[in-house]
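As promised in the previous annual report, we have extended the structural survey to additional targets. Below is the entry for Glutamate dehydrogenase.
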Amino acid sequence: MMTTEKTNEYVADYLNHLYNQIVERNPNETEFHQAISLMLQSLSPVFEKNPHYMEKGILEQLTEPERIIIFRVPWVDDQGRVQVNRGYRVQFNSALGPYKGGIRFHPSVNLSIMKFLAFEQIFKNALTGQPIGGGKGGSDFDPKGKSDNEIMRFCQSFMTELARHIGPDVDVPAGDIGVGAREVGYMFGQYKRIRGAYEAGVLTGKGVGYGGSIGRKEATGYGTIYFVQEMLKDKGLSLRGQKVIVSGSGNVSIYAMEKAVQLGAKVIACSDSSGYIYDENGIDIDTVKQIKEVEYGRISDYVNKHPEAVFTEGCTGIWSIPCDIALPCATQNELDAAAAKTLIANGVKVVAEGANMPSTPEAIQQFLESDVLYGPAKAVNAGGVAVSALEMAQNSMRIYWDIHEVDGKLQEIMKSIYQSCVQAAEAYGEPGNLEVGANIAGFCKVADAMLAQGVV
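The corresponding structure token record, generated without further manual editing, is:
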């Protein structure tokens, strides 16, 4: 029988050796390495209490995707020239259900980013309590500056290859950065033509008129705020009167801002890739919606309609604005240690991640060592995939739920996720650390399912 000290040392050596193996096997994939490292840092107490996870090689299996599909996507632009992009689908883990995760169209997309997103998706999906596994896909195609016809031709070509790898009980993609209802619609239409059948459950994030769920568009942003609401409640606080800054001005950001305002907060800043706006009177959400969802414009256009607001080029400066709640909702690693120190010095109370892995490890450490309430991405932004799972359920039953039913279920799911994180953190000796709680709660659910199915 090993002493506690020897057990701890053995587990630490095991996790360190495994991480080094993963880095060696997946060279130059920095985002993937970061996601793995953040997860492993939380799991020492789990393996100390449950050594059978090590004996059965659960982590060795869980950190290797079940399948990776990489393919070319040729398409014709409006000038008649053939363009070629690269497409990806990482089907990471199906222990809890069919692979589920978005499709991202952005020039930064590469295999490392796809693997990190798919790996995170496994545990995010597990936390929702819905029967879905983890996956992610995308392309280095940039929809900015492309015509509607070019986007349609690209989406059709992308789906022509992807169609053979997905299905309602196999893999169910959705939208992500650069992929909204328009792109999902084009992909769904192509899938339907290829399959010769109306399989509504093959994609989520569809338009409400053809199988989409009411409330899906708002779900990630609304869910973010519902999670923040639970964090504040535990401290005897509410959103009323809190000053909020939100990075990004896409789907997650817009609807996080909308729900925050509905619950009495004051949103004073948001951004896009060109810079950020600051409006001390409170951001007009309808104006942001008009600019970003109708006109497909830049956030700088906001000051043309609200001259009292100020636009500043560059994104990082948004974190210098004093606020009570900061919501990084744009992209990975957007909030670094310097920004974290500035937020803390300015008295921020809550940092909750609406985007995937938006804080660097150094920034996360700053938050955990301060009095800031920190909500990790895999828990905070799980509302989108939760409602995607509700869309799948509605598709299977061939029914529609109204907004009250969908939003009510979303609120309950986010409350449940928060409680799971709190309870797991307490059970493993890290009370209040939602980062550790989310990682442990998600991991244990997936690991136990893998053991039960004999995949080991």
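The mean pLDDT is 96. The radius of gyration is 21 Å. These points will be discussed at the next consortium meeting with the crystallography subgroup.
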